[in-house]
Design a protein that fits this description.
Elements (H helix, E strand, L loop, with lengths): L3 H7 L1 H16 L2 H24 L19 H19 L13
Helix pairs in contact: 3-4
């Protein structure tokens, strides 16, 4: 039986998808929409590259169904998240109607 924190990590894609969808619904922002579309495209590209390379996982995972491990879809998408957020923080100004700001 897996510990609770490993069960959580096993559901990372669902958690990240839910959080991204919640941010999109909450902010109704074009920037968040571009963010979500970019993350989906990044995931699709990683999966396409994975199918083209077809590098099998290490032998200790041979008991599982045949899947390919490189490039990592999770790592690719998380890298996109980090890069997008960094660039957005540096380049975009905070809009005065942002729901995150207290109203004066």
């Amino acid at each position: 039986m897996l510990p609770l924190w490993l069960k959580f990590l096993d559901q990372t894609s669902k958690v990240m998808s839910t959080l991204t969808a919640a941010a999109l619904v909450y902010t109704r922002s074009a920037g968040v929409t571009y963010f979500a579309i970019g993350a989906i495209l990044c995931l699709g590209l990683a999966r396409a590259i994975k199918e083209a390379i077809r590098q099998e996982r290490p032998p200790q995972y041979s008991g599982r169904k045949v899947t390919y491990g490189m490039p990592s879809s999770h790592a690719s998408t998380c890298t996109f998240y980090a890069a997008y957020i960094d660039i957005a923080c540096l380049e975009l100004s905070v809009h005065h109607t942002s729901p995150m700001l207290p109203q004066c």
